[in-house]
Amino acid sequence: MKNQNLNKLVKISLLGAMAFILMFFELRLPLFPDFLKIDISDVPALLGAFALGPVSGVVIEFLKNLLHGFIKGSSTMWVGELANFIVGSAYVFTAGAIYKRNKSKKTAIQGMVIGILAMVIVASIVNYFVLIPFYATLYHMDIKGIVAMAAKANARITSLWAYVLWAVIPFNAIKGVVIAAITAPAYKKVSPIFHREALVDTKKEKLNQI
Questions:
Q1: What distance in Å separates the CA atoms of residue 172 and residue 186, rounded to the nearest whole number?
Q2: Alpha helices in 68-168 (DSSP H)
Q3: Burial class (CB in 10 A: 0-12, 13-18, 19+), 179
Q4: What are the sequence ranges of the domains in the chain?
Q5: CA nearest neighbour of 80 among 68, 91, 90, 92
Q6: Using one digit for the tens of pLDDT, what is the confidence trace for 16-69?
Q7: pLDDT in tens, 116-140
C-alpha cells in the first residue's frame, strides 16, 4: 500500500510539473480579449483524472497553478490562477468521475463531453458573479472598464453578461474540445504505462505479505 501511494504521488507530481510547463505555451484566438489565451495545460490533469481518479486531476490542477504563481509570478494577483484552477477542476473532476464508474472508451468520451459542459457552466457563473467583480475590486477598476477592454476584440461585448455570452462560453467550449481531442489519443498510449506500474506494485505487495 505504501508503494502504491508513493507511486501515485510521484505520478501526480510529474503530471503537475508537465501541466505547469504547458502553461507557458499560450495561443491568442481571434475575437477574444487578449487576456483570454488558450493553452493545453489541462491535458496532464485530465490524463491524471482518468488514470488516477478525479481527485488526483484536481490536485494536478492545483499544483500547476501554484507553481505558475510562485515561479513565473502572477500578473493578475492570483485571479488568473484561481480562474484556471476552478474552471479546469470542473472539467477534469467531472470527466474523471464519470469515467471512474465504468472505465471504457464510451464513458471516457461521455465524461469529456459532460466535462466540457460543466466547465462552460462553471466558468460562466464564476466569471459573472466572482472573478470579474473580484478582479475589478483588486485593481480598483469599474466593471465597465473591463468590458471596454474586452470590446476591443469583439464589438458585441457591451456588458458583463455579453462578455460571458460572447467570450467566456465560446472560449471555454473551444478550449475544452481541444483538450479532449489531445487527451483521447494520448491516454490510449500512456494508459498501459499507468496500469502496468499499478499491477507491478500490487504483485509486490502480495509477495511481501507471504
A1: 21
A2: 79-101, 105-126, 132-138, 143-151, 160-163
A3: buried
A4: 2-24+37-189
A5: 68
A6: 999 999 999 999 999 999 889 999 999 999 999 999 999 999 999 999 999 999
A7: 999 999 999 999 999 999 999 998 9
C-alpha 150/C-alpha 10 separation (Å) is 40
Rounded-to-integer distance, Cα 64 and Cα 191, Å: 21
Do residues 118 and 124 make contact, with C-beta atoms less than 8 angstroms apart?
no
CB 68 within 8 A of CB 20: yes
2-24+37-189 has which fold? Arp2/3 complex 21 kDa subunit ARPC3 (1.10.1760)
Report which of 113, 94, 92 is spatially closest to residue 173, judged by C-alpha positions: 113
Of 46, 35, 41, 20, which Cα lies nearest the Cα of 190? 46
pTM of the predicted model as reported, rounded to 2 decimal places: 0.89
Question: What spatial distance separates the first Cα and last Cα of the chain, rounded to whole Å?
Answer: 15
DSSP conformation class of 28: E
Query: What cell was used for 87?
Result: 474552471
Cell (9 digits) for 193: 504505462
Which tens digit of pLDDT belongs to each residue from 63-110?
999 999 999 888 888 999 999 999 999 999 999 999 999 999 999 999
